Amino acid sequence: MTQYMDVHHGMQGVTPDQIREAHQADLAIEKEEGVHFKQAWADPDSGTVYCLSEAPSAEAVQRIHERAGHPADEIHPVPITV
Amino acid sequence: MTQYMDVHHGMQGVTPDQIREAHQADLAIEKEEGVHFKQAWADPDSGTVYCLSEAPSAEAVQRIHERAGHPADEIHPVPITV
Q1: How far is CA B7 from the centre of its chain?
Q2: B38 class by beta-carbon count within 10 Å (0-12 exposed, 13-18 middle, 19+ buried)
Q3: Are A4 and A56 within 8 A, CB to CB?
Q4: Using a CB-CB distance cutoff of 8 angstroms, which residues of chain A are in contact with residue B41?
Q5: Predicted confidence band at A20 (pLDDT cuts at 50, 70, 90)?
């Protein structure tokens, strides 16, 4: 399993409730791809959302995000953590 | 205090030791600006590094990163966390 940071752009004005709902939608189906979404952070002003996950591949992360209705714009493996 | 996600580009080939040293350099002086760098994640292939901090302002985050020798390319407040 590798950690991934994925990034969503264009989410200006996103609310805490919307982020919570989106995260819940991911959590509800993530096991089907062996993914776990650990945390997410949002900047409503610039419309940027960052999601940290553990997953078998970037494609698995994207499949869950797509099925949950919010495909990521970037997905980076982040093998180094401090 | 607000949480910030800052992003560094162009760090292709960065190693775990370099990330650890950079993080330690931030931690050594962060209190002088009331900042705390909580975690960092790096993708050596794309050369992207993400740092999560708590700080009084984006400028305070940047002042520490600059003094430690690695100014950020983007600094986003992330008031929403799940």
Answers
A1: 7
A2: exposed
A3: no
A4: 3, 5, 52, 78, 80-81
A5: very high
Which tokens belong to A54?
């553990």
Q: Is the pLDDT of residue A29 over 90?
A: yes
Q: CATH homologous superfamily for B2-78?
A: ORF SCO4226, nickel-binding ferredoxin-like monomer (3.30.70.3090)
Q: Which residue has the tokens 């959590």?
A: A27
Question: Does A57 contact B at CB distance below 8 Å?
Answer: no
| Residue A64, both tokens | 């869950």
Instruction: Please report the pLDDT score of residue B1 as a whole number.
Output: 86
pTM of this structure: 0.94
Do the chains contact at B82 and A23, CB–CB below 8 Å?
A: yes
What's the complex ipTM? 0.91
SS (H, E, C) B4-58: EEEEECCCCCCCHHHHHHHHHHHHHHHHHHCCEEEEEEEECCCCEEEEEEEECCH
DSSP element (H, E) containing A67: helix A58-67
**Would you call B78 and A42 a contact, using CB atoms and an 8 Å cutoff?**
yes
Amino acid at B72: A
Instruction: Enumerate the domain spans of chain B.
Output: 2-78
Q: Which of B14, B41, B82 sits opposite A81 (nearest CB)?
A: B41
